Amino acid sequence: KAGVTQTPRYLIKTRGQQVTLSCSPISGHRSVSWYQQTPGQGLQFLFEYFSETQRNKGNFPGRFSGRQFSNSRSEMNVSTLELGDSALYLCASSFGDNNPPNEQFFGPGTRLTVL
Amino acid sequence: AQKVTQAQTEISVVEKEDVTLDCVYETRDTTYYLFWYKQPPSGELVFLIRRNSFDEQNEISGRYSWNFQKSTSSFNFTITASQVVDSAVYFCALTETSGSRLTFGEGTQLTVNP
Question: What is the mean pLDDT of residues A51-79?
Fold first, then answer.
């Protein structure tokens, strides 16, 4: 069974640009969550999508957005990039049941560097 | 608000030593779930265990064991007879019943030296 895949693995952008990251969940998983990992702030939840709808959202500005397609694949977009957006962006998938919550399986991440 | 604290930033041990990673959490929910994840240098978080707030039974899985104590809001993780391959960052995380939003601790960098 294939794991969670994320593309691209590495990305270099300049301030002011926008970027789109992609995540393909494990087959059968309907929930995709995104996390940002930085040395200063650690791992922080961005948002979760379930059946093409945003189900949960973290405390990030509106420059961070996402969407989910009918095949459960998800994309995350960051507009008007800032230096502080440099981070490892991790995607996690699960079946999406919340009672109890399923364990989340993480992808290898996309390393974004903003210059 | 939920919070997870891992006070140990870095731990260094010699192979075959036992090591315990501490995790203390805060939550107002009566039902919640605790997790441990391992992050090797490759970056991918690997799920290790999930425990719900009603199950305080300790668990052992091979060289790994977990001690959940609701009275002290702690969920500690012990590796027995550590190995070099155990070297990684270990994260403790918390979520409430209603969602899959994980609140992570700061992580503990474990280095096992040969």
Answer: 95
